Amino acid sequence: MLNQDCPTTHRVGLMALMTASMLGVFAPCVSAAPTATQLTEGNMSTRHGQWAYQPSGCNQGWLTYYDEGGNLRLRDPAGKHQLLEKEGGAGKQTGLAMAALESGVSFLWRDKFPTKGLYLKRTDKPEEAAIEVASETEVLTRFEALRHEKQLHVLWYGERQHPDSNSLYHLYHRVLDLSDQTLSPTERLMPGFYPMMAMDDKGNILVASWLDKEKPAHMAARFRSVETQAFGPSVKIAAVPHMAPIYRAFENGGRWFVLWLGMDQERQG
User: Fold this and answer.
1) Among 70, 204, 208, 267, which has the minimal tally of Cβ within 10 Å of its Cβ?
2) Residue 4 above 70 pLDDT?
3) Cβ(105)–Cβ(98) under 8 Å?
4) Which backbone phi and psi does 25 adopt, to 5 degrees?
5) CB atoms inside a 10 Å sphere around CB 218
6) What's this model's pTM, rounded to 2 decimal places?
7) SS in 3 state form for the chain?
8) Cα torsion for 185, 190, 195, 199, to the nearest 10°?
9) Quick check: 189 and 151 in contact, CB under 8 A?
10) Are 138 and 160 in contact (CB under 8 A)?
11) How far is C-alpha 162 from the geometric centre of its chain's CA atoms?
12) Confidence of residue 36 (pLDDT cuts 50, 70, 90)
């Protein structure tokens, strides 16, 4: 259930408490005099700018990033770097997302050559080719991935017109069964920009989006129950005339939160 009465100060304070708790969890892994370690091989791309990190033990983790040449690279917890290319040669990769598996990680990237696609690869199955997830949805560079047990949930938005919508942009969801690599049918969830997904410990999911073409423009969400394995109806959270692409969604204590950065129209541009 969404709590629409929670003041902004309470939400910010809760985020600060969560951040402190997270730091406390990792505190035993930090030495008395920590030193900075360069994780990338060479410099990161200033044009792409995307990277994703997934912790894996004390002071270790998986890192994906774009190098100065725009090539997608993977660094494993042992510090080994690997150049990642889609089967069939180098393309034009953009965007990154990563989710922890029982062993290793899965990571996703978008490629727009020869056609737009969203590709997923697993470090626990290095011999298998990347799986294309987004099919004909004209995927864009914002996407999310979260795992619960043997299900990997993927959320993205695409640039494709539908006759029943006045928006060119829509959110899509798909589930990968990690046990046999099968994909569920692609489900179009709602129109809008900026896909965001949160999950609780049970595997319930909240998906949020900014519906900019609605009157008034607003933030909306849909909830997916782990019991029904289906999304409920869209729920309007708040009127949001203008916003920046900076926002988060999370669950805490059985309550779901969506935080966003609003913008004044006079300050745009």
Assistant:
1) 267
2) no
3) yes
4) -65, -40
5) 17
6) 0.80
7) CECCCCCHHHHHHHHHHHHHHHHHHHHHHCCCCCCCCCCCCCCECCCCCCEEEEECCCCCEEEEEEECCCCEEEECCCCCEEEECCCCCCCCEEEEEEEECCCCEEEEEEECCCCCEEEEEECCCCCCCCEECCCCCCEEEEEEEEEECCEEEEEEEEECCCCCCCCCEEEEEEEEECCCCEECCCEEEEECEEEEEEECCCCCEEEEEEECCCCCCEEEEEEEECCCCEECCCEEEEECCCEEEEEEEEEECCEEEEEEEECCHHHCC
8) -70
9) no
10) yes
11) 24
12) low
Residue 106: its pLDDT value, please? 94
Give the model confidence (pLDDT) of 98-119 as tens digits.
Answer: 999 999 999 999 987 767 899 9
Q: Tokens for 90?
A: 């180098």
The number of residues in the chain equals 269
Q: What is the CA radius of gyration of the chain?
A: 19
Alpha carbon distance 127, 62 (integer Å): 18
Tell me: cis bond preceding 126? Omega within 30 of 0 counts: no
Tell me the two tokens of residue 266: 């006079």
The predicted model gives 134-163 an average pLDDT of 95
